[in-house]
Amino acid sequence: MYAGDIDGSMAAMADDAVVDWPQSGERIVGKQSCTLVFKNYPGGSPAYELRRISGSGDLFVVEATGRYGADLSYVTSIFEFRDGKIIRQTDYFAAPFEAPNWRSQWVEHMAGV
């Protein structure tokens, strides 16, 4: 999905996979429903840039940025696997925001973020 290969990512999903989007209160149940939602994004699938993948065994976390037209979002996805297939994916999306000045004496600015 993060590489723009919807069909490839759907092949990695179990038939009974569940995708949760807590911020919008939505749950997509089943590989077919996931495929239809992902293939019908208005304006096409978002463009993602991977930042990091970490985990082991049956649990992995992906950090990325996503572009929805001109809008940038930071994305964190939690993937749970069973028998090598994705059974649950939970996605969190957040827009960047300006850091408040009050804490500037204690923090460093992260380049490229």
Describe the structure.
This protein is mostly beta strands. The chain has 2 helices and 6 strands. It has helices spanning about 5-10, 30-40, and strands at about 15-20, 25-30, 45-55, 60-70, 70-80, 85-95. It has a 6-stranded mixed beta sheet. Strand 3 (about 45-55) and strand 4 form a beta hairpin. The two termini are about 20 Å apart. The relative contact order is 0.18. The mean pLDDT is about 90.
The parts where pLDDT drops under 50 for at least 5 residues are none
Q: How large is the count of helical segments?
A: 2
Order of helices and strands: HEEHEEEE
Percent helix among the residues? 10-25%
Radius of gyration: 16 Å
By helix and strand content, what is the structural category? mainly beta
What gross morphology would you assign? globular
Range of strand content: over 45%
Mean pLDDT: 90
Give the strand order of the largest sheet, numbering strands 1, 2, ... along the chain.
2-1-6-5-4-3
End-to-end C-alpha gap: 22 Å
Number of strands: 6
Quick one: biggest sheet? 6 strands, mixed
Name a few traits of the molecule:
113 residues; mainly beta; six-stranded mixed β-sheet; 13% helix; globular
Reconstruct the topology from this structure:
Blueprint (H helix, E strand, L loop, with lengths): L5 H6 L1 E9 L4 E4 L1 H9 L7 E10 L2 E10 L2 E12 L2 E10 L19
Provide a brief overview of the structure.
By secondary structure, this protein is mainly β. Helix content is 13%, strand content 49%.
